Amino acid sequence: xxxxxxxxxxxxxxxxxxxxxxxxxxxxxxxxxxxxxxxxxxxxxxxxxxxxxxxxxxxxxxxxxxxxxxxxxxxxxxxxxxxxxxxxxxxxxxxxxxxxxxxxxxxxxxxxxxxxxxxxxxxxxxxxxxxxxxxxxxxxxxxxxxxxxxxxxxxxxxxxxxxxxxxxxxxx
Length: 172
Hints:
By secondary structure, this protein is of the alpha+beta class. It is built from six helices and eight strands; from the N terminus they run βααββαβββααββα. It has helices spanning 11-35, 45-68, 89-94, 123-126, 132-138, 159-170; strands at 5-7, 76-78, 82-85, 97-98, 102-110, 113-120, 139-140, 145-151. The strands form two sheets. It has a four-stranded antiparallel beta sheet. A four-stranded antiparallel beta sheet has the order 5-6-8-7. It starts with a strand and ends with a helix.
């Protein structure tokens, strides 16, 4: 049985995420305008620098979301041998993961999102796939394992259903 499951982008969830990010960006832009003195004529250096940097990051994220909207390829692919996903930068960097290397699956609350956390034991096999920054995000030094997170925020199911899908395919 070599059944392959492909999970695609949910346009409504992506649109809501884009609207949410745009709303936050507008509020940060207002903070930037206040910081540069557009409302009261007083220039606030720290506020201007902080809000400008955050606004720049938010705009980059918004443009990345806009660029990916037309992409019709699956965000998560699961089969009997392994899985791959593009729902988080770390998951995208590590690419395909074999089920035989998975030691644990959990639901973890990170910020405002609940993610499926996959723990991987065979660290040497995946060395060199990600940048140093993403490697440090994924590598747990205490137990020498990789923790790679997958989000359900842009696909057509909730995090519990995604977790159950991962568990049922891992146990096969």
